[in-house]
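re the bet — no i am not wrong, look at it urself. input seq straight from the record:
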Amino acid sequence: MAYAMHVDFKMAGPFGDEMAEAFADLAKSINEEEGFLWKIWTENPETNEAGGIYLFETKETAEKYIEMHSKRLAGFGINEVNAKIFAINSPLTAINKGPVT
């Protein structure tokens, strides 16, 4: 069973194309994380928030990732990270064309 994780935090930027350029190497490194399947990057410059929606193979790999990622963000001065992990209901998600197996 796959697990989705929603993460958000306050961030003063950059956003948009500047964010894409600044975090390209970070994005590539996420692909190497254990159990990682995909990520949708999220941002809201009006509220100074960023984050993402992730899919992991197991709950354990999602938990391991958020522990590591929270420490990494703390290194950037971001100390309040909201993270929630959810099991995926695959039959219902398939009806709505969700990209999970």
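see?? The first strand starts at residue 3 and ends at 10. told u. also The chain has a mean pLDDT of 93. so pay up
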